[in-house]
Amino acid sequence: MKAKIFLSYSEMDKKKLKALRNAMKKKDDLDPIVVSERRKVGQNLTDKVKQCMQEADCLMPILTRKSIRSQWVNQEIGFAEAVKIPIIPLVESCILDELKGFIHKQIDLPFVFNGIEADSKKEARNFRKCYVSALDYVAASSQITTIQHAKPGKLMITKPTETYVSSEYVEVSGKNAKPGAAIIVITSLYGKHLAPQKGYAIADNLGNWKYDRCHLFNINKDRIVYAIAVDLVHEQRVRELLAEHRKPPRENAMYLFQQILKNEQIPFEISPGKKLVRRYGLVQMRRVRATMHKAYFRDTEPRVWAYFFKIVNLSKQDIEVTHVGIDYRGDYIEVHPPERRLPKRLKPDEEWETWIEFDKLPNCIRDNPFPYGRVRLSTGRIIKAKQAKNIPPKGEIAGGPVRPEYDKH
Hints:
Elements: E1 3-8, H1 14-25, E2 30-33, H2 45-55, E3 58-63, H3 71-82, E4 90-92, E5 112-113, H4 120-140, E6 156-159, E7 164-165, E8 169-175, E9 182-189, E10 193-196, E11 201-202, E12 209-215, E13 223-230, H5 235-245, H6 253-263, E14 268-270, E15 274-278, E16 288-296, E17 305-313, E18 319-328, E19 331-334, E20 344-346, E21 351-357, E22 373-377, E23 382-384, E24 386-387
Parallel strand pairs: 1-2, 1-3, 3-4, 4-5, 7-15, 16-24
Antiparallel strand pairs: 6-8, 8-12, 9-10, 9-11, 9-13, 13-14, 13-15, 16-17, 17-21, 18-19, 18-20, 18-22, 22-23
């Protein structure tokens, strides 16, 4: 029997939809459901979506910088969650920090691809690798289960409750394991490297378990922590398999490792991933101020107006600015005049300015782009630029020379 998969997408991602749908049609056991292809005269669109959703075995939303704010995509995800339809999202990596609601970055998102706006062919290749893994996962599952959270009775990680921790070693604990099972804790860096922790925990008679010293060996690295429950007699063999298959790094490494365990016929249960980021000490003290103001360049006729980003390093160590831009409803407009190359390293108390000319912005935000200004650091932190008020419309530009025709602003 074919698994029916409801495809949720934005109109701006039709190329991705077409590629995904065509790949599914080549598989004998998968049947794509695309609402726009099921036309029926006089039928309300909302009713059509509900009818298609009720037929589906799972929902596969394409979440990109273009679709993240799509009303239909978000409503379809909410409907699927309400009627308990499994959700298998394909997520563009650049929007992970913006995900909210039922799908967000603190849950296990194994099918992530890198979107490259400047290179559509490379982005298409990355998306293909992502959906091929996802379709293989669906096809291999005798019973499709929800990816983003565990159902009652499934193995779960309950502690730590926060994503960000301050210690090198943290306690990882959970529930719903088989009594007496060995719990192996694994960390996965960027979804590619699998690193098993030393030793294991034993589940008590109620299925609760606790692992005292999960080692988070580096700072500011996004990692996913998993727990695998196996019978004690299989614990050593599972470690041997991990050692054999942890290198070279692979995309969707945990999914691939599950297939290895199935091939070995080792009974196991795996928890949804828990995101943990270690931050402490000076890392937390990196204070950065980012502001925006409107001004014009001197001695230009007619006047050349621009919006200026001023970035000040208020911390006691160097910082590196990797991106500056305007993020308007999922459309990212880069700010990169030739005189202000990125990345830019700033020493303590150093200030630096860059700009985007007025006529390079869409008409809808030319008068007020301030809510959408963003600055990204090499640590992954994104800073919202604040509007600087009462700034003279002309003055010196921090950060080095500009084009002779502009001179100063």
